[in-house]
What does this fold into?
Amino acid sequence: MPLLDLNSINTFYGRSHILFDVSLSVEKGEVVSLIGRNGAGKSTTFRSIIGLTPPQSGEARFKGELLRGLRAYQICRRGIGFVPEDRRCFPDLTVRENLEVAERREKEVAHPWTVERIYALFPRLQEREKNLGSQLSGGEQQMLTIARTLMTNPEVLLLDEPSEGLAPLVVALLADLIGEIRKEGVTVLLAEQNLHFCAKVSDRGYVIDKGSVKYEGTMADLLSNEEVKEKYLAV
Amino acid sequence: MDLSFLTVQVLSALRQAAFLFLISSGLTLVFGVLNILNFAHGALYMLGAYFIYWLTLYLVGPGGFLLALLAAPLGVALIAAVLEMGLLRRIYIQEEIYQLLLTYALVLIIDDLAKIVFGPEFKSVPKPDFVSGSVTLFGGTVPVYTLLVVVLAPAVAALLWYLLYKTKTGKVVRATSSDREMADALGINMSALFTLVFAFGAILAGLGGALAGPVRTVFPGVGTEVIIECFVVVVIGGLGNLWGALIGSILIGALETIGIIVFPEFEMALIYLLMVAVLVVRPWGLFGRPLKIKALSEKNLEMEAQEISPVHFSVHPAVRWAPLLLLLLVPLVAGRFYQYLLTQIFVASLMAIAFNLLLGMTGLLSFGQAAFFGVGAYAVGLLVTKAGFGTLPALLLSPAVAAAAAAVIGFFCVRLSGVHFAMLTLAFGQLIYAVVFKWYGFTGGDNGIQGIPVKPIAVAGLAGIDIGSTKEMYYFVLVVVGLSVEILRRIRSSPFGATLKSIRENGQRASYLGVNVKLYQWTAFVVAGAFTGLAGGLYALMEKSISPEIIHWTKSAEPVLMTIIGGIYTFVGPAVGAVVYIILNSYLVAWTEKWALVLGLVLLTLVLLLPGGVVGFVNEKARQIFGKLRCIRRWSFSKSTTS
Ligand SMILES: Nc1ncnc2c1ncn2[C@@H]1O[C@H](COP(=O)(O)OP(=O)(O)O)[C@@H](O)[C@H]1O
Ligand SMILES: [Mg+2]
It folds into this structure.
């Protein structure tokens, strides 16, 4: 049974139909990429999963259970962590406070994330512990939003365009970090425009365009498939 | 100025600031998290005061008083929690205006219920002995109770600081107020948090009321005075910002004290002047930040869809003029009471339709239309009584004067949007109210202008037409309003109207397309102001006396209510709302004293069940029925062709 499974979901913003029968599944322990151009529907897919913009039809299942009708906070508490694009850390809270507000105790977890464990993984955040969210650099903000979502003890992490707008050095750091997170036992679904970044961190990928999935396969196959790259990913 | 005088004055300013802070900290906290500017916060204050009045009837002695001081706010919090869970919670996804209106409905309801339960008279809570004396400080005599208030407020501020910065829930509250959606996705239960914060805000309002009980009088409706002061405080400080509320309270407390000493006449105007000055320099308040534009919720889209695909009854012009013809015949069959009632309805309709040029068409919620109504009315009153103008010239000048006022006020207001826009229009309106109320030499102060003579109207040198009687006034108002409404209708269907609509639907897109959004909004504001002024001018002629009451902010709520009752997205909606409102008003006032209660319940029902208003509802039904008819017709048509 896949950990996360979308079956033909259709999602709307008001009257505009955005996602068309999107299906995808993620197995426990995988890092899976969702690749597509700007406006392809990656963020909408994530918002559909986490319940911020619930799909109007189709099924989203987590560990076999339907997510229909659940609110975002309930979906989060079941174990899906959402890291939004554009780094929405809380600007008026310090780094430490940003982490503290996300700490969840509702669920029994074998090895829960604590601020200390986070600091071990993100030493930079410890150095900036007392700074406000708004005082961080772009890379630090990205680290903080990821770390903050980890504090909710997710089993699967939805990472929305983490590499966007970061310097190459920071992107490399981020790739390592995703590897670390995977080693901690967290499954990752990664939305990206950057194919090479995906190739570095994930084994499998889906290509999405105009709200529907056009291709799925291993990253190696995708990298060698010039037609798909040309048609859906070329800028 | 000696030290004792200074001491007394400083402490009096601090006491005022302390009350303001206690109440407005709750208001701003609720706004910060729920994004609702709670009109009913003043009513909660009132409940706190009534509760301590009631509790101290049974709880006596120092211990009893302190217990009551604790229990009263908790009682208020309980009521607030019920209101939040039962009512407010249902409309979070709707536009701001429905949230404002729901809390306004609560004001009407709570005020009347308080009147029923506690009686209409002023109540005062006896001060318990242990705080009723006074002490001498630097030679000045200071009541002990003042010291109690002045010490308690900073203690509450410190407690708030502790809760917000040192507890997990407090941190969650701060996080939520900066990004609600993110907090939701991080597993924070918004519903529970909203109830908690709303109830906590109510505790602060209730504490303010309970503490004020022994030093200020309590009466039904006291909340409407208190809430406006608090609006001023939180808007000056920056909506949603606690430190802003603190600084705002101190500023207003100081200004009121200084005002009473230095400009006793215009003390009230002074605080609105400060608010206007602050917002002109810092549109989001001293510590405020621009509000993020909320993503259009699905509800919004649905409601706008009502207008996007309205039922077109493609009315023949003759049909459109038929009601007018009928109205011309009314005086032949109906008596003076009905003529007068209809005249009132005409004036109110004009005001409401003009107002909806802002709300329904441009998406601007003005809460200061009474100012332009009043400016128009006073223009007629003053021109006729002081400058000897004839009826018609004075009336024709009233929209011009109101437009001039709207041009100045609008210049500052259109820089803001949403709640900030509403608050700035409200502040300007109250500024004008405060000046008119006190300027005895010019406006007659709170006496107003009595006995405005209505002289016969001279038409092209012919004998004058006398419009002094009810019937003639009826025809005169009908003609003026009819013409004005026709002009407004043409504005609505003109390219200018279409541009306004595109601004309401998506201001950002309109500005990308090269529309000077602010200029269009300003023009709409001025046009609406002009017609509102004309309505005011007509009012002055028809009532023959005016008073500052017509400028008070509660009057500004009337066109808002009428528009919501009738329906915001249609042209005739506001007029239908005016009919309902005026008829309800005149019959209910005769039949029951609980007019506000009924109005509040009507409003509550509309906001919760029929957000499209009466006309929106009829349209919706009509579309369903017509839709079915069309299906049947198509079906029978296809059958006849196949056979
Ligand atoms: N709040 C919204 N309202 C209406 N349309 C939206 C909204 N957000 C995104 N869209 C539209 O949905 C489509 C998919 O957007 P999105 O999921 O954000 O794409 P991606 O994340 O792949 O860049 C785009 O065409 C975008 O314009
Ligand atoms: Mg995106």
